[in-house]
Each structure stands twice: as C-alpha cells, then as structure tokens.
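Researcher: Re-running this chain for the archive, since the previous output was lost when a drive failed. Same request as before.
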Amino acid sequence: MAGQRVRTRFAPSPTGYLHVGGLRTALYNYLFAKRMNGDFIIRIEDTDQSRKVEGAQRNLIRTLEWAGIIPDESPEHGGNFGPYVQSERLSIYAGYCRQLLEDRNAYYCFSTPEELEENRQLQLKQGLQPKYNRKWLPEEMGGSMPSSEIRKKMESGEPYVIRMKVPDYVSVWFEDIIRGPIEFDSSTIDDQVLMKSDGFPTYHFASVIDDHLMEFTHIIRGEEWLSSMPKHLLLYEFFGWEPPKFAHLPLLLNPDRSKLSKRQGDVAVEDYIRKGYSSEAIVNFVALLGWNEGEGSEKEVFSMQELIDRFSLERVGKAGAVFNVDKLNWLEKQYIKERPAEKLVRSIKPILLAELENRQTLLSVETITSDEYLTKVIELMRERVGFEHEFVTFSSYFFFEPESYDEEGLKKRWAAETNDLLREFVPQMESLDVFSAENIEAALKEFVAPKGLKAAALIHPLRLLTSGVSFGPSLYHMLEVLGKETVIRRVLHGIEKITVPV
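Model: Regenerated structure tokens:
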C-alpha cells in the first residue's frame, strides 16, 4: 500500500435522511482525500433491502452536493462510475463466498430464527455473551454436523445462510489512526453471517470485499463500527489481502453527553437546510465536531479550502463531540456578516418574491426587488439577522406595511403629546430636499430642541409607526432606506390608529 494514491469512501445505506454524523463522516473522508491529493468515492450499501427507502439514495447525493462534497469517479468530475451500488454487484460477492466455503473458512447454516432466538435467550440466562452455537458446523471443520445432513438440507431446498468460521483462540489486532493499538480476543467474536437467505451479502462481507476491490487506502468511519473490526480483519486474513488503514471517529453527543438522537433535537441535515442554515456554516460546524486545528489556534471560521489545507486525522480526538446548536448559530451569523452583498441579494430575492405572492405591499415591487434596494437592506441588517431568510422575515417592514404595533413599546414610549408632536414633525420631513439619514437626524434634533425635549421623544414613536417594532437598526438610516413617501404615509396612518395615550 506504500506509495499508493490515497482513496477514501463514504458508504451510506439508503434508509432515509442524511444524519449529521453521516455528513461528518463524509466530510472527513473528503477532506483527508483532498488534503492528500487523493480520491473520494461514494458507495451505496443497500444489501439490506428491507430497510431501503425509495428516493433516499438520490436525497443523500443531493445533500452532499449541497454541502460541496462532490465525489470523484462521478459525472460531476467527468467520470462514468459512481456512486457504486452494492445491489448491482451480487455476483462478485457470491464468488468470494464460494472461495471461503472451499477454503473451509465458511459453512452453511440451516438454523431457524426461532432456534437462534431460543439459543440467545439461553445464553443470556447463563450470563454468557450471545453467539451462534455452531449447530451446523460440519464435522470436517471441527463441528458435530455430519456432511450427509447438510447435503440433505441442500437437496430439499431448505433456506440457509452462510456463516464465517471464526478461528479459535486467536488475537485480532490493529492500529487505529485516532485511537492507537486495539486488540480483540477471538473468543468474543461470533460466527457472523456472510450471505443471507435472500442471496444478498451482509454489510460486513460486502464492505470488506468492496473496500479491497476499490483499492481504498483509508477507512474513516464512526466509532460504532469498532466492534465489527475483528470480523473485517479476519476476512482480510482469509483472502490474503492487506487491510487499509482505519480511523474511527468519536461519537456525536447531546449537550447532556448522551448519544445524539432525534429525541433531543434535529439530527437530519435536511432539517437544518429547511431552517435556513447555509452549507458553509453547516460544513464548518460539522468539521469542528471532533477535529481542531491544534494548540494555539483560535481560528473557528474556515472555508472548505482552508479545511482541506489544515485537516489531519491526527487532530481528531477520541472523546465524544458535543453538538452545540448555539455554536452553529454563531457560525451562521459570522458567514452572513462576511458574505458579499451580491451573493446575499441572489439568495434573498427568491424568498422575497415568494412572500410577495402571498402578501400585498404598498411599495413599488420593482423598487423593493431591485438589487440596489436589497443591498441597502442587507448592509443595514446583516449584523442583526441570524439567517438569510430573516432579511425578509425579520425585516419585513422594509417590504410590507406594519400590521400591528409592539404593545409594550407603545406603553413605554407613548405620551399624551406624542401624536401632536408627530403631526407637527411631518411637514419638517416633507420639506427635506434630500431624505438622508444625516438630514433626518438634523431636522429631528432641531425640532425637539426648542421644546425642551430629547430626541428619544420622537425616535421611538417614529420607529414604532414605520416598522411596527421597538427595536432595529439605526432609525435614521432605516427611514432613509424606506424613503420619504413611505415614512410619512406610515406615520400619518399610525397616528390615526393610535388616538389616545396607552
């Protein structure tokens, strides 16, 4: 394997959505391969046909593409291959299974599900680790079942599986890139099923064969697969193949350090996409779930290329990684702050157009959907929103008339003379030749000073009537973006609705 081009893979089962843990596995494989100028491949492991979900494969690929994780040997990279699909390779697995049978490293098993369960329960009562009792292990392989009985079952067409014969009293050892040396005693290893009664291989069998045939140099996967390592390594030994290098990633944990599960929050990448998270923030966040750049580094915001340039398996920890949504939200805000306005305009325009199909506006549609207007809104609000869609939903007053006014704000900011002050200030705004933030501010201060009032006497009422809420960006800049006609219309309309002090 020395000197061989690095090849990694992500091998999901098409059983539903892409779990965030799956995205991390795919990302780490991708980053490592690209860091080493190697290849990243996708393989669909659909040997368990009972769990296959229609459309899941297409959704997995689409979600990975959204995240910027594009496999090699795919049409996107000029290939004619991937993703590889195991259900299309059944003849390959059958051939290797015959080899194991001929070499007496595997045997036919006719035990029924009822017999297997009865044996399992008996072993549990005896305080033993459940394992197959080798009832059908042939005499010539050290078992007690005569070959004649096996032939009878075969000739009568009885359903069977094919099991691997685990050698007795051997030690299985390997060096994990993340965890160091790990050793297993063969006495703890079950005679696993290699081929099921439906003719499909099990995950363990097909995975080892494909990993060898596809020449993967590194297998990077979740910690939950550690217990399967001895089965896989024995298969490599039976076939005389050199195993790839292995790295088992730490578990993802809830804030209470329990295993990440849907019971405590969203676990599907699609859930976060629907909520409006960007691919940049999700990828950045997932990359930090177990990996860090190293001591002394305080950098937390990484582009995909920066992750590729810095990633190493040696910097992946063994301890479980806590899934902290607050950190994800913080990252999303960092990306919004830094994202070019023209890119944000392209993102939010479709959101606004969809909203305009359901809501009436008194503003010029041509104006509020223009790049110029949207850019002004973006620059005013980018420090305040958490998601791109909030440029429209959280800042709807830039596009639609306020439908109500913040009640707490009215109680706190409205005085007996507020309506009269506003009516008196409207002509001052109308007289402004240039309706700019600077001119609005100067006019307001000149208006209140002779009356012995502070600017706040009008600032808060003006914000409430023009936006409906009592918080937001700089009032003067907000009014400038809205424009003179809109501001005056909303103020006069609001005065009519708020007729008495609250």
